[in-house]
Amino acid sequence: MTAWARLYEAAPKQLREALQAEQAARARDEHGVGDLNTSPFSAPLRRLLTDGGLVDSQRGFGLQASWPVGPVFPRIAIDHCLHDPALVTAARALGPALGSDHLAVRVDLAWPPGQAP
């Protein structure tokens, strides 16, 4: 279990309240990108998506396993781009290894047709 997952497990009420406050204060074009060190199947990530009102950009693009780089099997999808449901994931793909132990992740977010601010 990752450090943030342990924190979420240890203090779900405080984190849920913080997420809800953040969601209430944020602009429509909110997104977050990062190495969350958790699979898309983990319970803490599922709760983060639900409690934060976020969408995982990987949805609809298949399992894109980005770690580790090299001839290792199996790879794991632990790099995520979470975004506001007002946006759509127009494209999502794995890129090349750029010196990290993770493959690059490219995500194109867009406003749905006719809904740009």
TrEMBL record:
Chain ranges passing through the membrane: none
Pfam families: Exo_endo_phos
Family matches, as InterPro entries: Endo/exonu/phosph_ase_sf (IPR036691), Endo/exonuclease/phosphatase (IPR005135)
Endonuclease/exonuclease/phosphatase domain boundaries: 33-102
Protein name, entry field: Endonuclease/exonuclease/phosphatase domain-containing protein
GO molecular-function terms, A-Z: catalytic activity
